[in-house]
């Protein structure tokens, strides 16, 4: 408020309106915006077109804004025009409630406010993040005469692309008279989203020019499809082409190094990140921690973690899991305590990582206590994956009856992975009776999964009960059971 008073002072209404609008435009937080809005209200300038527009824009579309605040402002405007509708539609399009954009657009038309091309770009972005039909909005674009705008056509291509509908994207692309690099990139993304990597590459190779979106889409697709070496080669081509990567590009490149367990290339990428000004990005540091841990370079993972000025929940979870997977249970538990002391609240992934740490150390009782504290102390309800970890942990310790009772008492339906984990423990400890009970549960879930029959047969053989083993072989053949691997939530 002091800053608002200092900059506004006792000015004439026009000068004050200009000052308030300037402050709103350079505002950094909702707290600051609320102060500016309060001053505008006291000065009877809250409905001044310039002041209202700047305040509303920040609340609706700024990363530090507040859509609820923006919507309250919107409701107080007597006759909001296309500009205000567009800003709110745009804000909701990027939010957790994209469907609100559609509601606003429909309200806009009911109130006789004409949409423009930008209305459709924001609406199409919202629809790209929603389930349901796409042809209705496409048809509306054509009926209202906006299909001749290239930026609207590109938004249509993007909508089809994000929904993994390359046929729709291609249809719009082919209907567009003068496509640009954005159009081409949308087509690449459409094939990538549909899992059509070869077709995506064909489109990419045919592009007259390529932007960061097309390069990144293909690099990410290669990395996720376990073509990590191709992803790294494509990144080198991107650099030689003089296209500057973005955060998403670099995360995909680091992921490729992780997949390959290629610490040497990962180190080169790390140097590139530091030398080119990406080092401050939390998401890249998180990816580097994971990559170094995957490559067995825990010292470098710690260096990245300790060098971070800001840490997200994902940062803490990555480092805890890295320690857990490398058998450093004490470090994992110490990180958890540091995380709590820094006022960072854990989530479900945090506890999964801690269970891995306890399992590697065989600290079953400690793990059980933590399992109870999840709900009691942190308000986090255990999911099936947490129960799976506990069953795995108990099974490894030979506490099969406890594991069985834990599954029976689950508040949600059990699955074959949880029961399969216990059956694997039965094989380890040659517990025929428990194995039979578990297989009965598995048969109720899926009688054709032959891996469970095989495990029970192995239990019979280990216990010297060859008659039952032979009978199991016959049952498998009669049911046409298919062999499948056993499961473990914790690995190993």
Q: Layout of helices and strands, plus pairs?
A:
Blueprint: H1 2-8, H2 13-25, H3 30-42, H4 49-61, H5 67-76, H6 82-93, H7 99-110, H8 117-128, H9 135-143, H10 150-162, H11 166-175, H12 181-193, H13 197-206, H14 212-224, H15 228-240, H16 247-260, H17 263-275, H18 282-294, H19 298-307, H20 313-325, H21 329-341, H22 348-361, H23 364-378, H24 384-396, H25 400-408, H26 416-429, H27 432-445, H28 450-462, H29 466-479
Helix pairs in contact: 2-3, 2-4, 3-4, 4-5, 4-6, 5-6, 6-7, 6-8, 7-8, 8-10, 10-11, 10-12, 11-12, 12-13, 12-14, 13-14, 14-15, 14-16, 15-16, 16-17, 16-18, 17-18, 18-19, 18-20, 19-20, 20-21, 20-22, 21-22, 22-23, 22-24, 23-24, 24-25, 24-26, 25-26, 26-27, 26-28, 27-28, 28-29
Describe the structure.
The protein is mostly helical and 492 residues long. The protein has 29 helices and no strands. Helix 7 runs antiparallel to helix 8, helix 14 runs parallel beside helix 16 and helix 16 runs antiparallel to helix 17. It is globular. The mean pLDDT is 90.
């Amino acid at each position: 408020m002091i800053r608002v008073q200092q900059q506004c002072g006792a000015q004439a209404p026009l000068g004050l309106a200009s000052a308030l609008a300037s402050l709103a435009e350079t505002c950094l937080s909702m707290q600051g915006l609320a102060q500016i809005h309060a001053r505008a209200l006291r000065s009877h300038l809250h409905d001044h077109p310039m002041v209202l527009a700047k305040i509303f824009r920040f609340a609706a579309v700024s990363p530090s804004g507040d859509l609820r605040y923006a919507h309250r402002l919107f409701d107080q405007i007597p006759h909001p025009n296309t500009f205000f509708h567009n800003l709110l539609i745009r804000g909701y399009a990027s939010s957790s409630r994209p469907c609100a954009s559609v509601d606003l657009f429909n309200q806009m038309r009911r109130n006789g406010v004409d949409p423009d091309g930008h209305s459709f770009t924001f609406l199409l972005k919202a629809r790209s993040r929603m389930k349901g039909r796409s042809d209705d909005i496409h048809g509306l674009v054509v009926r209202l005469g906006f299909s001749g705008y290239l930026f609207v056509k590109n938004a249509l291509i993007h909508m089809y692309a994000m929904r993994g509908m390359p046929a729709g994207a291609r249809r719009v692309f082919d209907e567009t008279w003068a496509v640009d690099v954005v159009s081409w990139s949308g087509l690449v993304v459409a094939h990538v989203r549909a899992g059509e990597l070869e077709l995506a590459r064909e489109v990419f190779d045919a592009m007259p020019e390529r932007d960061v979106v097309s390069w990144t889409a293909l690099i990410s697709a290669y990395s996720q499809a376990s073509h990590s070496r191709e992803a790294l080669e494509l990144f080198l081509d991107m650099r030689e082409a003089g296209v500057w990567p973005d955060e998403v590009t670099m995360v995909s490149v680091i992921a490729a190094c992780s997949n390959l367990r290629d610490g040497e290339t990962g180190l080169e990428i790390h140097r590139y990140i530091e030398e080119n000004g990406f080092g401050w990005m939390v998401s890249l540091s998180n990816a580097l921690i994971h990559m170094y841990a995957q490559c067995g370079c825990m010292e470098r993972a710690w260096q990245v973690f300790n060098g971070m000025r800001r840490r997200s929940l994902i940062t803490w979870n990555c480092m805890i899991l890295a320690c857990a997977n490398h058998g450093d249970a004490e470090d994992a538990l110490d990180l958890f305590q540091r995380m709590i002391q820094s006022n960072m609240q854990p989530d479900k992934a945090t506890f999964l990582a801690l269970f891995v740490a306890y399992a590697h150390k065989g600290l079953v009782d400690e793990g059980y206590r933590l399992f109870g504290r999840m709900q009691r102390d942190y308000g986090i309800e255990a999911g099936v994956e947490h129960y799976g970890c506990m069953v795995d942990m108990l099974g490894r310790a030979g506490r099969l009856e406890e594991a069985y009772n834990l599954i029976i008492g689950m508040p949600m339906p059990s699955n074959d992975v949880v029961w399969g984990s216990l059956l694997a423990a039965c094989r380890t400890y040659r517990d025929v009776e428990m194995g039979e009970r578990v297989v009965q549960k598995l048969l109720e879930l899926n009688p054709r999964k032959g891996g469970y029959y095989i495990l029970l047969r192995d239990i019979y053989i280990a216990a010297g009960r060859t008659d039952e083993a032979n009978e199991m072989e016959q049952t498998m053949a009669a049911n046409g059971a298919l062999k499948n691997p056993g499961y473990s939530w914790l690995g190993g």
